[in-house]
Amino acid sequence: MELSSAEFILAKQKIPNRTGPVRWILSHAGRYWYLFVMMTAGAFGNAALAAAVPVLSGMAFNLIQNKATQAFSLGWIAVLLIGSQILRGVVQFGRNFGAELIAQRIERDIREELYVSLIGKSMTFHNLQPVGDTMARATNDVREVNFMFSPGVNLVIGSANFLIMPLIFAPGYHPSLILVPALFIIFYFISLVQYLWELNPITTQVRSAFGVMSTRLSEALDGIETVKGLAQEISEINRFRENSNRFRAVLVKEGDVEARFVPMLLLAFAEAGGLLHALLLYQQNAIDIGAVVSYFGLIQMFAFPTFASLWAYSQVSLGLSGARRVLELINRENNLDQNSRGYAGAIKGEIEFRNVTFAYPNSSPTLVDVSFMVKPGQTVAIVGQTGAGKTTLVKLVNRTYDVQSGQVLVDGVDVRDWNLEKLRTGISMIEQDIFLFSRSVAENIAFGKPNADKAEIELAAQAAQATEFIDTFKDGYETVIGDRGVTLSGGQRQRVALARAFLTNPAILILDDSTSAIDSGTEDKIQRAIYSAARGRTTFLITHRISQIRWADVIVVLRKGRVAAVGNHTDLLASSEAYRRIFSE
Amino acid sequence: MGFFGNLDSESYDRKYTDKQLVQRMLAYFKAYLSRLVFLVFLILLIGATGAAGPVLLGWGVDLVRDDPSTATVFRLFGVILTANIISWAANWLRRRITVRLVADVALRLRQEAFSAVMHHDLAFFDEQSSGKIQTRITSDTEEFGKVVVLVTDTFGQMVQALILVVILFTIDWKLTGVLLIFLPVVFYAATGFRNAARYVTRNGMRAMANVNASIKETVSGIAVAKNFRQEAEIYKVFETANTTSYTVNIRRGFVLSMVFPTLNALTGVATALLVYGGGLSAAAGAISSGAWYLFIQSMGRFFDPMINLSAFWTQIQGGLSAAERVFALIDATSTVTQNGDRRPAGLKGEIEFTNIKFQYSDRQQVLRDFNLHIRPGETVALVGHTGAGKSSIAKLLARFYEYQEGQIKIDGNDIRDLNLSAYRSQLGIVSQQPFLFAGTIAENICYACPGDSAKAMMEQIARQIGEGEWLDALPDGLDTMVGERGGWLSMGQRQLVSLMRVLVQQPAVFILDEATASVDPFTEFQIQQALKLILERTTSILIAHRLSTVKAADRIIVLENGSIIQEGSHDQLLAQGGHYATLYDTYFRHQSIDYRPEGV
Known about the structure:
The structure holds 2 protein chains of 2 kinds.
Chain A: H1 21-30, H2 33-65, H3 74-120, H4 123-128, H5 131-173, H6 179-222, H7 224-229, H8 233-259, H9 262-283, H10 289-300, H11 303-308, H12 312-331, E1 351-358, E2 367-374, E3 379-383, H13 390-395, E4 405-410, E5 413-414, H14 420-425, E6 427-430, H15 441-445, H16 454-463, H17 467-470, H18 490-504, E7 508-512, H19 523-534, E8 538-542, H20 546-551, E9 554-559, E10 562-567, H21 569-575, H22 577-583
Parallel strand pairs in A: 3-8, 3-9, 6-7, 7-8
Antiparallel strand pairs in A: 1-2, 1-4, 4-5, 9-10
Helix pairs in contact in A: 1-12, 2-3, 2-5, 2-10, 3-5, 3-12, 5-10, 5-12, 6-8, 6-9, 9-10, 16-18, 18-19, 21-22
Chain B: H1 18-30, H2 33-66, H3 70-119, H4 122-127, H5 130-171, H6 173-220, H7 222-227, H8 231-284, H9 289-298, H10 300-331, E1 351-359, E2 365-374, E3 379-383, H11 390-397, E4 405-410, E5 413-414, H12 420-424, E6 427-430, H13 441-445, H14 452-464, H15 469-472, H16 491-505, E7 509-513, H17 521-537, E8 539-543, H18 547-552, E9 555-560, E10 563-568, H19 570-576, H20 579-588
Parallel strand pairs in B: 3-8, 3-9, 6-7, 7-8
Antiparallel strand pairs in B: 1-2, 1-4, 4-5, 9-10
């Protein structure tokens, strides 16, 4: 049900369990259960064959001491050793590559799941969600989930098998020899938990101290003109000294915790204790010398889990927090629905705001009781200070957001009663930051009408006054934006976007022009393009150009989310003191 | 482990010889000589206890067989436990010392590099991207410090291996030979894997970068895609990149998965040979069982050093290049140099440019023979096309760049004779991209405030502008957080804050490189108010982009190719026609309220 409201759905998509990060990861991993079998079997085989070395060495010892009682000759032992260790290489590779396959597949799958969910989400979501944050989750966090399996889970399972082997083999020599391995494993886990518990908060401190240091550093470098202009070099140096000292302090603190890695000390005790135990048994003739050698070799197998635990477990925990962040993004609500059975007439372009109030989640209202009326074909200028609600206001028209109370009506029909697809096709929105894809100019212009022919594209470019700069490119319309340093200025981007609008010919055009540069040498062309784009359709202009405001059919002055004044230039000069102060020269 | 580290070491154009670099690096470690000496001692100790493990075991095997008394067993236990504990404790201390050594060397280098950078002139920042400078200060310094870890770790393992080799050799040189034959095999296997790993990893990262670029493009362009309902199409692009990345990274995984199994198998084969050869010798009575055991136990202690050694040289090279990059940062020379240290008090602001010649490093001449006299309190606007030399004039006056010939005087003082920071504190400079630091608005206005009295003044001035309406638009007034680089404020608000900074600073000379971003008419009105307050009190040089600013100037200087070609007031110049009239048509005419584009 939640899915039916997404704006993009993949036909044969399998939906994994999304009720929690662990369950989610498991349901992804479950599809590759056979790889898990391969990894686990590989890990078990690897550990068992690693145990073969001490076992066989012990046999060799007994053979030398007491020639008669051994099943194999020395030569056979050597052959078995070589064979077992080559076989061990093969199964260990199986373990590693199995883990690698799981990791890469899960990375691919969850990235795809995230991607599909992202393009399926409403514009409300995308407008509220910072690009940097989404990117961090789609790249780093997804990567962490990969690392969680390889090397994370791989090492955890590998270590577990190395911990088990001494438990399995040691009692074979003498039942009581299980004592040291058992004690080691118990204390190993206790001290590991304690170590991670102690290390985690410090790692966080290190990360945040580094963040503070490098953020201020990059500000001081980027703001160097300001620093120098105000003669603040010394105060910046002092500030950096403070920040870097703080970073140094936590770094050392972290190093100290890592230095005192207790499992390593446990290993030292286990080796000595195990040896003592075995020798005492040997002294009482309970076991032979070969058993001592084998047993001691088994105890030495604990070295691998001890070293691996330095990072295997934190890798898994990092992966889980990565998974949590990715899943959180996927699970965030899609709060608009397509309304495919809604009103689907041709848009004429009459727009009415009726007592509209709107607030972003968890904040005070951005728009309060906004009412005004626009006739088809009129040009509306929205004016007001930053934060007055201009951009929010126009985004209610194409249902980027929905009102909290009141109504936005297009052709007398509440936008929420329109078929969303039909409504959006009839409205073209050109935002402040005009985004162009890294494709050819022609493809960018024809983005909304992929089957447009060359002549149509050129006609649209002409109407948008864009031919002047497109023709200067060596490859003309086939020039790929972003390639070989081809970048377009703000004014040029705007004209490409306008050409897009000419091609799709919407009834309503919304143009957020508030970030244009004031000193553009091609201002004349840009404004001419805007004027001709506005002709014959209802146009909302968010503009700072006072001449455009002056000539608009309707001017809506917003102040802190409320309509301060509505009317044309002449009306407002007469009715609004604030307007008069600024617009009468 | 360091095995897959350092995949991206790049060649760096050398400025220093290896000898110079090493000497200079040593100088940094010299300050911690006592720590270094202790560290070397610990490493030797660790090496010795490491080698002692197998030796003691071998000795113990013989001892217990010959004299299996409880006392012997406990003595053996005591000795081995002690050796193990000493080894652990020495390692503990070594890591504590190493972390301090690395942190302190990196810290010192970092602070030196940062303060050097702060004192470089702006020409330096034009040539180096701030991202690169930042990497040098944060990570290259760290890498430099880590050279010591690398050297000591390898050294320690070498010591241990060497001790063992000597002992083994005295026991049975043939068996030792068998063991040594394997070392180059392991070394070359490790080197081979490293090269293969570097190759596949680079490919993997490239493929990953493609996927990330595709996601970035989607997320940034989602509005367009949705507006035109092209979701399915962009999905296809992503899917291809994602699948390709998977295939390439699987190949990487395949290579990396082989590394340790291969090395382990090699160790296994070597062990088998030792068991066999040693067993024969022991059976023949040539060596004792204990010595045989010693050989088997020593096995593993030779292979780790070989694996590390195969990476050693690349990593050292990495450390040296890092050091070189940091030293280059510290050593860069500043071209702006002062000849005197006079502290000007209460400047009036009379400015005189005489026969100034200026070019940015190795680019074409910007100013050829520039002369300009500005009266105290005068407001001068500079106009002209991009590259006419407007901002160069302002930047020379601010001492951001060094001019090659001529003289600039303020109140009769050559600006080269003044104390730089005392002089700059008499200048109020607002750059084209007003820069704010993360923090509150008040902190930014008072970035260079001398004391608390300025704070009270700030409140008062803030209220004065636009009746304080701009403050009411902010959630917490003067205490509103501005975000990194001031990103949470609009361009107009950032301009207001930087003008406010100047009002509090009360400089004698005001230099404004006007922002080109358009600002809503209401904020614009407040900016003009603030500007008016500043202009009344200072000698002002304005690089003007706004019609209202040009109109507010006492005198407009029209520049072309670094020369003054017209001057006068707005009305005079318009009446004259010529270059100013062209500039007006291109840049300013459309800013007037009655403008309509041609043909509309």
